[in-house]
Write a structure and sequence with these properties.
21 strands; alpha+beta; 2 domains; globular; single chain; 9 helices
């Protein structure tokens, strides 16, 4: 194994284009991943774990190709299907899959039994130190906590010196405190050893915290792949927007298009008319009269109590406009008057349900979901004051790609 701290010169390049039918389920996954840590994100049963199994060689695809750094691991046309032990891939299973009758040391060195005894002990000791398992070598898995078992599973996967480490929902069984600690340790390992990682998770916060790139799955298909910022701020469909927490999704007609660099346009913008309200959005290459979908993430809406003045317009925002309140309830740029009709306290934050003055009113009796921190809720006195203005910064209005 490389000395700790010696990084790979480049991140691994994984190419996946495969199909697999299994028990009535059809998987069709196609993506490229070349970031240090890539998250396969989506609901349970969408094909993420099956993709890992095909990459690792545990399941043989019906058709397709898998390559790592240009080295073909599987190609149905060429008849290539390398066995798992030749793929330079480590695998951490969701249930850890430790051997209950073997000690921690024996579990870790299980995959490197061909090494001379001295080298095996040296490598096992280094991995136990890296994973903070010192003093636990003689214990059995049943004597360990969930977090310790997870560390053993990761150490065992790293023992084979993989180019790519596959992690299948590795933190799902752990409580939030242990999960957060292991998140930090995983990122540290990634930096120290330079091994690429492919993480399966259905937890959006986990995917965003750990990864630089995301691949979004649903019903056996890849809906979108790209940087985490692109996935959140330029969702390719309503489904991707919903999966990534954009609770406020609307259909609108493009009323106005101002191209970048035009007089008064600066960066350019669109005016979108939902029918009950209008908003400015960043420029996209649409035409007046086009029907589009857009979304607004609840944590990016700024709520101001009625009569408390205007929030500042950030750099790059359009100037405030004196449009009458009767004009679709737009006051200035994306300022929508309304009332809080419901709320849910979530410990450190509140979810507010906000109904607009002129009443789009969805099935739940509200039009927008707004997330605000606990301290902001009480500073604004929202336990008493329910009338307010929702300010939607232009850059927080994301036009959704694909069909409206």
């Amino acid at each position: 194994m490389r000395e700790v701290g010696l990084m790979q010169e480049v991140d691994p390049m994984l190419e996946v284009d495969l199909e697999k039918r299994l028990d009535g389920f059809q998987l069709a996954a196609k993506f490229r991943a070349d970031a240090p840590l890539v998250a396969l994100f989506g609901p349970s049963g969408s094909g993420k774990s099956l993709t890992l199994q095909c990459i690792a060689g545990l399941v043989r695809p019906d058709r397709g190709r898998v390559a790592l750094d240009g080295r073909v691991l599987h190609d149905s046309r060429q008849g290539v299907d390398l066995p798992p032990q030749r793929r330079r891939i480590g695998y951490v299973f969701q249930n850890y899959a430790l051997f209950p009758h073997l000690t921690v040391e024996q579990n870790i060195c299980y995959g490197i039994h061909r090494l001379p005894p001295g080298e095996k002990r040296e490598k096992t000791g280094m991995l136990m130190k890296l994973m903070r398992l010192n003093g636990l070598g003689d214990r059995f898995p049943g004597e360990l906590s969930g977090g310790q078992q997870q560390r053993v599973a990761i150490a065992r996967a790293l023992a084979v010196e993989p180019r790519l480490l596959l992690l299948d929902e590795p933190f799902s069984a752990l409580d939030s405190a242990i999960r957060g600690k292991l998140h930090r340790e995983l990122l540290q390992i990634r930096e120290e050893l330079g091994v690429g990682m492919l993480l399966v998770t259905h937890n959006l916060e986990e995917a965003y915290t750990l990864s630089r790139e995301m691949v979004v799955y649903d019903a056996g298909k890849v809906l979108q792949a790209g940087s985490r910022e692109e996935i959140l701020r330029r969702p390719a469909s309503r489904t991707v927007a919903r999966f990534t927490g954009a609770k406020n999704i609307f259909t609108a007609v493009v009323d106005e298009v101002v191209t970048p660099g035009s007089p008064g346009g600066t960066e350019g913008f669109l005016t979108l008319n939902e029918g009950h309200f209008s908003v400015h959005a960043p420029y996209y290459p649409y035409r007046v009269g086009d029907t589009v979908a857009f979304c607004i993430r609840p944590e990016e809406i700024i709520l101001v109590p009625a009569g408390e003045g205007k929030p500042p317009v950030g750099e790059g925002q359009l100037p405030q406009a004196d449009r009458p309140a009767a004009e679709n309830q737009l006051v200035g740029e994306n300022r929508l008057a309304g009332r809080i009709t419901g709320e849910i306290a979530r410990g450190s934050a509140y979810t507010l349900f906000f109904a607009l003055q002129n009443g789009l009113f969805g099935p739940g009796g509200y039009d927008l979901q707004i997330e605000i921190p606990f301290h902001t809720y009480h500073e604004l006195g929202l336990e008493e004051l329910k009338d307010g203005v929702a300010w939607l910064p232009r850059q927080a209005v994301y036009v959704i790609g694909g069909e409206p």
